[in-house]
Amino acid sequence: MRKLKSILTATAVSLFMLPAAGHAGGTVEVLHWWTSGGEAKAVGTLKEAFEKQGGKWEDSPIAGGGGDAAMTALRARVMAGNPPAAVQLKGPGIQEWADQGGLADVEDVAKAEKWDDVLPPTLAEIMKYKGKYVAAPVNVHRIDWMWINPAVLAKVGAEVPKTWDEFNAVADKLKAAGITPLAHGGQPWQDATVFETIVLSEGADFYRKALIELDQEALTGETMVKVFDQLRKLRGYVDPGFSGRDWNLATAMVMNGEAGFQIMGDWAKGEFLAAGKVPGKDFICAPTPGNGFSFNTDSFAFFKVSGEDRIEGQKVLASLIMSPEFQETFNLAKGSIPARTDIKLDKFDTCALKSFEDMTAAVKNNTFVPSMAHEMAVPRTVRGEFLDVVTNFFNSDMSSADAAKAMGEAVKRAQ
Ligand code: GAL
C-alpha cells in the first residue's frame, strides 16, 4: 500500500513538470470497459459531446463485461506511474483508490453546478471522498431483471413468471420443447449477477445481512442453502456452450429465439435497442422474483494528473457527465436511467419507466440495495471471495449446504 502511495505521489510530481499540450476543451484519457454494441454506442455519446466542446478524447477500452479486466489494467497503469485521467470505477472502489491517494477532486465543478441538489444522497455519498466529489455518476442500472423473448414463451404457451417456482415450470416446458431456457455466460461476474438476484428474492433484509453486513448466520443458514438450490436449478437450464460466453452473446441468444430468458442488468436492453428491437414487442423486461431493486451506478473517477490541459480535460468531462443533456442521451442508449433526479423521462421506454417506478418504491420501502456482483456493496477482496464460491458451485456438483458453508468461510478469510 505504501509503495502504491509513493508511486502515485511521484507520478503527480513528474507529470506536473511536463509542459501542457494545450487543447481547447482539454485532453482526457478515459479507461472503460464499454465495448459491446450497446455499450460502445453509449460511450460514443460521451466522446462526441466532449469533442464537440473542443476536447481531445483518448480512448482506452479494456474489453470484458463487468470490468474485472479493466480493473487489472488500471492497477498496472497506476503501478507504472501512468494513471488514466478518468476511469470507469464504482462503489467502494472509489473510496479504496481515494484512500491510496490516487484520486483528484472536482469539487469546484460540483459546487458551481450544485451536484448535491440533483443527486440522490446515497449516490452523492459514493462519489465523495472526505466530503469532496472525486467521481461523477452517469446512471442507475438495475440488476434484477429478466430479458425475455415473448415469441419463445408463446411457443410453449407460457406467461412471464413471477416466482422461482413459476420460472422453473416455464423453463421445464422450454427444455422439453428443445429450447434453451436460460441464456447465460459462464463467467464469475455473470454467475454472481444471477446469484444475487436469487438472494434478493429472499428479501432485502436477507440480502443486506448476507451480502453487505456479511453476517455468518445469513451466509451459512437455511435461506442461503435455499438460494443455492435455486441456482442449481438454473444451472440445469443453461446450454452446454455456456462456459466463458460473453454476456452480450447470451443476450443475442434471447434476441434470436435460441433461448427464452437472460437474467442480467439493463445494459442488456442497450443490446436489444442497438439491434433495433422494441421493448414490449420483440422483448420483454420483467423483474426477477421478489420486491427489491438492486442498483449499480456507473461513474467516472478522476485520477491525479498534471498539466493544465489534462486537468482542464477532467473538469470539462466532469461537467459534461452531469449535464442534463448528456444524462438523457447516454442513458437512452445504455439501458439505464439517469443518475440525476431532475431529468424528464418522456423519451424513455417502458422498461426504464418501470425501473424508475420500482426504484422510487424500493427507496421508500427500504428495499433498494447495492449490487454485490457489480462492486457497489463490498470491497473487491470480499467480492472476489463471493465470486469464487458461486462460480465453483456453478461449475461442480457441490451441494448447496457445502456452498453455504464455503461462503461463510471464504468471507471470514477476506475480512
Ligand atoms: C457492469 C457495468 C455496466 C455494464 C456491464 C457489462 O458492471 O456497470 O455498465 O457495462 O458491467 O459490461
TrEMBL record:
| Endpoints of the signal sequence | 1-24
What InterPro entries does the entry give? Bact_solute-bd_prot1, SBP
The lineage's top-level taxon is Bacteria
For this protein, the record's SUPFAM superfamilies field holds: Periplasmic binding protein-like II (SSF53850)
Q: What cellular-component terms does GO give this entry?
A: periplasmic space
Keywords per UniProt: Periplasm, Signal, Sugar transport, Transport
| Subcellular location, record wording | Periplasm
Give the protein family.
Belongs to the bacterial solute-binding protein 1 family.
Question: Mind telling me what this protein is named?
Answer: Probable sugar-binding periplasmic protein
